[in-house]
Amino acid sequence: MRKGVKAWTAVEVATLKKAYKTQSATQIAKALRRTASSVKAKVRTLGLKKPARRKAAVKKTTRRTVAKRKTATKKRVIRRTAAKRKTTKRKTTKRKY
């Protein structure tokens, strides 16, 4: 073992295995008073994997939600065109000869 490297105890490894399913490496590192990189390295050597995330339930679209989307889109388009009109208008000044 390298100089200055703290060996992992059985209690720390057990805590790591239990907590890795629900917590991030940074959170575990704070709890164990180790660096995040050392926790990540130990996870790799132990071959731990995070549980697969479930896909979010797809919301059923109703007529009302579709109508809301359409009106919101129309409002955005109107705002954009109004902003373009403001930028394209130039002041016309009469030239004195």
Commentary on this structure:
It is a single chain. It is elongated and about 90 Å long. The mean pLDDT is about 80. The protein contains four helices and no strands. The chain has a domain at about 10-45. It is an all-alpha fold and about 100 residues long.
Tell me briefly what this model is:
The protein has a domain at 10-46. It is built from 4 helices and no strands. The chain has helices at 10-19, 25-32, 36-46, 63-88.
Structural topology:
Blueprint: H1 10-19, H2 25-32, H3 36-46, H4 63-88
Helix pairs in contact: 2-3
In terms of DSSP E residues, the strand content is under 5%
Average pLDDT rating? 82
| SSE pattern | HHHH
Low-confidence regions: none
- What's the number of helices? 4
Distance between the termini: 90 Å
Global shape: elongated
How many β strands by DSSP? 0
The major sheet is characterized as: none
Give me the Rg, rounded: 30 Å
Helix content class: 55-70%
Structural class: mainly alpha
What would the keywords be for this entry?
single chain, 97 residues, mainly alpha, 4 helices, 57% helix
